[in-house]
Amino acid sequence: MPDRGVRTPVAVGARITRFGVTERLLHWAVAALVGVETVTGAFLWAPAFSTLVSRPTATWLHLAAAVGLALAFLLAPLIGDRDALRRAARQVDRFDADDAAWLRGLPRRLLHRRARPAPPQGRFNAGQKLNAALTGGLLAVLALSGALLWQGERDTDWRLEGSVTVHDAATVALLVLVLGHIYLAVLNPATRHALQGMTRGDVDRAWAEHHHATWVAEQGAVDAPRERAVGDGSDAAADRRPARRRGAGRDR
Ligand code: HEM
Predict the structure, then answer these.
(1) 3-state secondary structure at position 71
(2) Tens digits of per-residue pLDDT, 16-53?
(3) Rounded mean pLDDT of 150-166?
(4) Quick one: average pLDDT of 73-102?
């Protein structure tokens, strides 16, 4: 569903592939397992919940979801589309001048309706890249502090002061990020169309051109037939056609 800010008129129904099966399965597996971690973590944290789920059961589920998360990240590249994951990691990892400009202009865009539009973005905008980096970092901190807590219950030598505080603080920080992420993916009118990319795999191309103009241009999608889904998220097309459509479909 295109939002009102879209400037490039395209035929209704033109779609562009945003996420492949492996990327979507990994995303939803991580989302579900982080959900289980959050709920069971709340059971362990608040004794009031112990009437609903016993502590041993909550502990077991909490550990099982943590192992599930590790397995998801390990197995996805082994049994899924490794190239797509490597490509997505590269696209999330690369931070360029447009990303810096996007971040610099963010406060102004949030505060002033008539602020200068954001520079065109690649497959992920600077906010998404930051979100992915912080989420990954926090999951690593949670895994490490969680492993210390688990080992500390077996061997007091591993009971390090501060492990609980670090685990709790990382949980709160991750929750804030995830709630903001869900707000943008489900509620915010300008960005909620992205949910279709993570469910059915493709999005309206006009929406993509508005929010990820550089990525769409790299796909060679601008000149491709508009009636069918195009592109596979790859940057192979970018290698053939590195032209950047500056100013096309700028974000606010
Ligand atoms: C109900 C919960 C969730 C929904 C509805 C949701 C939705 C989405 C959508 C629509 C995208 C694609 C955005 C785009 O097209 O660019 C996305 C990407 C992503 N999601 Fe989620 N997500 C959820 C939970 C989570 C959780 C729990 C995590 C990790 C802890 C997570 C991590 C990510 C990351 C790292 C990306 C790529 C970067 C970004 O778009 O921020 N998501 N999610």
Answers:
(1) helix
(2) 999 999 999 999 999 999 999 999 999 999 888 878 88
(3) 88
(4) 96
Q: Where are the domains of the chain?
A: 20-189
Cβ 169 under 6 angstroms from ligand 1: no
pLDDT bucket at 5, cuts 50 / 70 / 90: very low
C-alpha 27 – ligand 1 centre gap (Å): 7
Domain 20-189: top CATH class? mainly alpha
Confidence of residue 226 (pLDDT cuts 50, 70, 90): very low
DSSP at 184: I
CA distances from 1 to 15, 116, 194 (A): 11, 24, 9
Write the Ramachandran bin of 162: left for phi over 0, alpha for psi from -120 to 50, otherwise beta. left
For residue 16, the surrounding DSSP H or E stretch is: strand 15-17
Residue with tokens 């999951």: 139
With a 6 Å cutoff on the Cβ, whether 184 touches ligand 1 is no
Q: How far is CA 48 from CA 11, 52, 54, 55, 159, in A?
A: 55, 8, 11, 11, 25
Rounded to whole angstroms, the Cα distance separating 216 from 6 reads: 14
Give the number of residues written for the chain.
252
**Secondary structure (3-state) at 202:** strand
Closest ligand 1 atom to 132 CA: 35
